[in-house]
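Students often ask what a holo structure prediction actually looks like on paper. The answer is less mysterious than it sounds. You provide the chain, you provide the ligand, and the output is a string of discrete structure tokens encoding the 3D arrangement of the protein together with D-xylitol-5-phosphate.
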Amino acid sequence: MHPIAIAPSLLSADFAHMADECADVARGGADFLHVDVMDGRFVPNLTLGAPVVASLKKATTLDLDCHLMVEEPDHLLDDFAKAGARWLSVHLEACRHLHRTVQRIRALGMAPGVALNPHSSFAALEPILPFVDFVLVMSVNPGFGGQAFIEPVLDKVRQIDAWRKRHKSGLFIQIDGGITATTIGAARQAGVDWFVAGSAVFGQPDRAAAIALLRTAAERPGLQST
Ligand code: DX5
Ligand code: ZN
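The corresponding structure tokens follow.
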């Protein structure tokens, strides 16, 4: 099992004070930053693009993990590489030629990941696993912060974890959506390494305390009642 990483999602940050928000979670012990890119088509919300990522890159020393919730993301890949994204995930459901897209992300010098919606199956994911560095398992329907955790996606996490053990793969498993002190332990127990947390970090006044709480709670197996 990889050590855990906490990645605050900027979607829940104050967009008018991004540099300060990044500095606050960097001081508070964040491992890297999760950046949600939405196009208003793949998901019913619109956020930010590569120019904002380029500005964030100058404003923080933390690595940027960009989650593209966009249809046919191929035309954006070069821009995100130039903007300084380290990790880049594209949705399984949004790519017609997923393998080609993943190869292109790697050729551009970024670490490729594949994201999948709660309804998408392990069977659809399996053929691409040898070619990616990480899988992003959505535990809410993408588009918005602050939604409730969909627990049955943990079955998929267990399948991915079993696959990587079987294949002696160093693949990372990331989970995104509804991660709180209540849900993080069950996700860790299922095999998750990287935890994206939006409202559970940026929605709290003390971000260092919020990150520390998630780290502690991750060590407690199962869903917690508080
Ligand atoms: C939702 C985004 C998430 C979002 C998570 O589509 O992909 O990264 O910020 O927010 P919380 O942690 O509040 O569920
Ligand atoms: Zn996300």
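The chain has one domain: 5-223.
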